[in-house]
Amino acid sequence: MLDAIHKRLPDLPLVYLGDSANAPYGVRTPDDIYDLTTTATQRLFDEGCDLVILACNTASAAALRRMQEHWVPKGKRVLGVFVPLIEALTERQWGDNSPPHEVRIKHVALFATPATVASRAFQRELAFRAIGVDVEGQACGGVVDAIEEGDMILADALVRSHVDALKRKMPLPDAAVLGCTHYPLMADTFQDALGADVQVFSQANLVAESLADYLTRRPEMIGDGQGVSFLTTGDPKRVSGRATQFLRREITFQSA
Q: Of 105, 146, 162, 253, whose CA is between 20 and 30 Å from 172?
């Protein structure tokens, strides 16, 4: 997702924090997710960031609303990654707050972490914007771990298994949502397993476009930093190697 944001907004100063020491979030309790998310967000505030995007569907589902209502300091903003995806799914313009309406897509397969599926946050946000849409969630256990370990053969097999399980519950989805920021790395596998007739929605470019629109309206949130920096709570050498492998350019992480 950061790569998509950087390509869309190449002059935007960015700080990326990967909480690698505590990943994956998707199998944790809501309170654990909240505590980890607020800690990571505070670290970014300490770096001088005024706007933080939770580039994690699990954190967006389980922690964002509570953070916005009770924790985010004055003058700071924390945004999630669900809304841009749902706006695209429901064919709305960015920031359209009109009442919910019927949309073309009626049957949606949601592939996400166990915590995201259990939260039903996607269905809640969708209900604000659309009516008559059936959503079937599939908790994709193991996929994030396999990707983090660089075992793409295992990740491929797990994705196909989860798609098969989803199809037993919803044989003919119109669309599929990749509700985890790791899953775009497996987008081709999801598409192949689902079939060419299923429209697969991924998040990176949608979030990047939504952020560009947001910053056009709120330029004071851009900040005065320089360039892009990378922080991790894990082993910087190991995380740098994985990031370089996935993005196909050298990425160097520092300890958070």
A: 146
CATH topology of 2-82+205-236 equal to that of 98-203?
yes
Of the candidates 44, 56, 193, 206, the residue annotated as catalytic is 56
Question: pLDDT band for position 94 (50/70/90)?
Answer: low
pLDDT tens string 205-225:
889 998 998 999 999 999 888
Determine the Cα angle at 121 with ends 120 and 125, to 5°: 125
User: Does the pLDDT of residue 95 top 70, yes or no?
Assistant: no
Would you state the CATH architecture of domain 98-203?
A: 3-Layer(aba) Sandwich (3.40)
Q: Is the C-alpha dihedral spanning 169, 172, 177, 183 positive or negative?
A: positive
Question: What are the tokens at 223?
Answer: 């900040």
The answer to whether the CB of 60 falls within 8 A of the CB of 81 is yes
3-state SS record for 148-204: HCCCHHHHHHHHHHHHHHHHHHCCCCCEEEEECCCHHHHHHHHHHHHCCCCEEECCH
Q: Check if the beta carbon of residue 69 is closer than 8 Å to that of residue 42.
A: no
Domain boundaries, the chain: 2-82+205-236, 98-203
Question: Taken in order 224, 215, 39, 56, is the CA torsion positive or negative?
Answer: negative
What architecture is the 2-82+205-236 domain classified under in CATH? 3-Layer(aba) Sandwich (3.40)
243/79 Cα distance (integer angstroms): 24
**17-30 pLDDT, tens per residue?**
999 999 889 889 99
Q: Clarify whether 56 is annotated catalytic.
A: yes
Residue 31 DSSP class = H
180 counts as catalytic: yes
Tell me: the pLDDT tens digits for 27-46?
Answer: 899 999 999 999 999 999 99
